[in-house]
Amino acid sequence: MTFASLRAFLAEGAGVLARGPVALVFVEDRVEIASTVTHHATIGFREIVVLHPAEIAPPPEVAAAAHWVVCDTLAPGAVPAAVNAVAAAAPAGTWLYYCYNAEYLFFPFCETRSVGEMLAFHAEERRDAMLAYVVDLYAADLGRHPDAVSLQDAMLDRSGYYALARPDPETGHPRERQLGFFGGLRWRFEEHVPPARRRIDRIAIFRAAKGLRLRDDHTFSVEEYNTYACPWHHNLTAAIASFRTAKALKSNPGSTFAIPGFTWHGSARFDWTSQQLMDLGLMEPGQWF
After folding, report:
1. Residue 153: CA atoms inside 13 Å, Cβ hemisphere, count?
2. What residues in the chain have per-residue pLDDT under 50?
3. Cis ω on the peptide bond leading into residue 21 (within 30° of 0)?
4. 72 three-class SS
5. What is the model's pLDDT at position 124?
6. Contact 226, 178 (CB under 8 A)
7. What's 17's DSSP letter?
């Protein structure tokens, strides 16, 4: 189905949000829209809602696989505003996930288990949100792929990741079970990335709740949602394999000519498996085996 606006979707397509988990895909350009939709359908999202600018038409090959909502996704604050509007309209407890085009969600054992199975286990552990690390992907050869995007020739950093304590702005003390995570292209090319955009952690999967608000920095107004684990043991985490930073660095006039290539001694070919991401420490299976 297609909707002329987010308001129209929330008024006419409310039934879509009753069947979670629901994936929200925010389209910023024409790159890899179809593969993004296909990937999230394959891993088991019951509904996929694609929010896209009016000038970008749905790719015909996946037009029937998602609901298409016209939205100015590039306007300041548009993404958190849209996520919050959808979350407010969804039944309480519905699992929601959000990402951008050319981003691909991975979770432990996603090759053989669905996202619904994974979230059922996560809910049994009394968790209402899941931390995801945004793992930068980039094409190995920018001469062949000047936009830095290639599914067949994708690379990622196998090292260079680190975490810092997240201080409470009121007390100055570190917040319990909250960390800021860094690495990937945002770390290696940090001179081209605003400080507020250098973190790679994103609370990308969460349950709708009354009064919940997504903030502009990918954290939520309920601080427990922003934790990486419960107080008792490690919990599941996910990873979002993303070309978004590479695309931005190569499309921005201020950085594109300063970056002849993204590969370095810490690069590895991405094999598109959850096992590789777990082996690199980029997501955590917790107690789920």
Report:
1. 14
2. none
3. yes
4. coil
5. 95
6. yes
7. G
Question: Whole-angstrom Cα distance, residue 208 to residue 253?
Answer: 39
Q: How far apart are the first and last CA of the chain?
A: 37
Phi-psi region of 125 (alpha: psi -120 to 50; beta: other; left: phi over 0): alpha
Tallying the residues shown for the chain, one arrives at: 289
Domains for the chain: give ranges and CATH numbers: 1-101 (3.40.50), 103-289 (no CATH)
What gap in Å lies between CA 223 and CA 234, rounded to an integer?
Answer: 17
DSSP states of 180-248 as a string?
EEE-HHHHHTGGGS-GGG---EEEEEEE--TT--B-TTS-BSSGGGG-SS-SSS----EEEEE-HHHHH
pLDDT at 172: 83
Cβ-Cβ contacts under 8 Å for 268 (sequence gap 6 or more): 155, 156, 157, 158, 280
- What tokens appear for 239 in the block? 């990873």
Q: Per the structure block, which two tokens stand in for 30?
A: 């024409």
The pLDDT of residue 289: 78
- Structure token digits, residue 209: 């709740």
Mark 100-120 as b/e (b = at least 16 C-beta within 10 Å). bbbbbbbbbebeebbbeebbe
Question: CA-CA-CA-CA torsion for 145, 105, 42, 30, nearest 10 degrees?
Answer: -40
Please give the radius of gyration of the chain, using alpha carbons only, rounded to the nearest integer: 18
Model confidence, pTM = 0.96
* 65 vs 55: CA distance, rounded Å: 20
Distance CA 60, CA 191 (A): 39
Q: In this structure, are residues 284 and 177 in contact, taking their beta carbons and an 8 Å threshold? A: no
